[in-house]
């Protein structure tokens, strides 16, 4: 379990996060959702260890990691721009991190990730030859071979659309389920958060407006901000979202 207790963060006297209390269970997919400037990226950076909290504690599996440096937390992040190496082919990008830590994943495990993400036909290609969705899958594979304890995703679908976007959403869900991998996603897109996640954390002006399952948030928004930010934007798409929930439940019941 990942737990944040009374987290506060300011920059140059301006409060970015205040009184953040949060529990994320092992294997959950949690989206951090909110408008630009609300503090969601700062929250992701605090969990990763890229920045330090002014106050509060971060607890992981019962241990206080508040002051543990980023490289020793065992978490990994997939950035919005993928951060792939253009001079390397797909296979070398995927296995780059194993050069210094070769024992983390075996060759068989690397091949399993490649197969899972449908990258086998592209291994010899240069990054410039790939589509946006293929680049995203390469970045996911490169992250997964390092076996992170928590997977952090920063706007992972913002550059994608249509069928490609839905395909990557399903891959993220499958990875989280198959590997029981706690996954935390930053997004500004309510539909993306509600259809991808087990729980959604809605942040506004540095505080938590609501935290709960997507269907709870749709049915019972806690305040006017949640209602306006979520439901008004999704009014046209609401039927599609409910049908997606029903489809997921039908699949799980089979």
Brief sketch in words of this structure:
It contains 9 helices and 10 strands.
How would you describe this protein?
The protein has 254 residues and is of the alpha/beta class. The chain has two domains: 22-51 and 60-74 and 153-253, P-loop containing nucleotide triphosphate hydrolases (Rossmann fold, 3-Layer(aba) Sandwich), CATH 3.40.50.300; 84-147, no CATH class. It is 37% helix and 24% strand. It has helices at residues 40-48, 90-94, 107-116, 132-144, 162-178, 190-196, 214-219, 224-234, 238-253; strands at residues 2-11, 14-24, 29-33, 55-60, 63-64, 75-78, 150-154, 182-187, 199-204, 207-212. Strands 6-7-8-3-9-10 form a six-stranded mixed sheet, sandwiched between helices. A four-stranded antiparallel sheet has the order 2-1-4-5, covered by helices on one side. Helix 4 (132-144) runs parallel beside helix 5 (162-178). The radius of gyration is 18 Å and the shape is globular. The mean pLDDT is 90.
């Amino acid at each position: 379990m990942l737990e944040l207790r009374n987290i506060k963060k300011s920059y140059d006297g301006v409060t970015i996060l205040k009184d953040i209390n949060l529990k994320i269970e092992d294997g959950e997919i949690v989206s951090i959702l909110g408008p630009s400037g609300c503090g969601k990226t700062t929250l992701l950076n605090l969990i990763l260890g890229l920045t330090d909290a002014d106050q509060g504690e971060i607890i992981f599996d019962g241990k206080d990691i508040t002051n543990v440096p980023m490289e020793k937390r065992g978490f990994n992040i997939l950035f919005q721009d993928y951060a792939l190496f253009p001079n390397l082919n797909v296979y070398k990008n995927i296995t780059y991190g194993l050069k210094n830590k070769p024992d983390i994943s075996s060759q068989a495990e690397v091949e399993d990730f490649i197969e899972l993400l449908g990258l086998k036909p592209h291994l010899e290609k240069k990054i410039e030859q790939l589509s946006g969705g293929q680049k995203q899958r390469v970045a996911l594979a490169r992250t997964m071979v390092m076996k992170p304890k928590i997977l952090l995703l920063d706007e992972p679908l913002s550059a994608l659309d249509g069928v490609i976007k839905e395909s990557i959403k399903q891959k993220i869900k499958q990875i989280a389920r198959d590997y029981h991998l706690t996954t935390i996603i930053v997004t500004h897109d309510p539909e993306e958060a509600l259809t991808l996640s087990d729980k959604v954390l809605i942040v506004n002006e540095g505080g938590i407006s609501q935290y709960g399952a997507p269907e709870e948030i749709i049915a019972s928004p806690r305040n006017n901000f949640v209602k306006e930010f979520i439901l008004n934007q999704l009014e046209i798409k609401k039927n599609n979202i409910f049908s997606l929930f029903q489809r997921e439940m039908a699949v799980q019941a089979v």
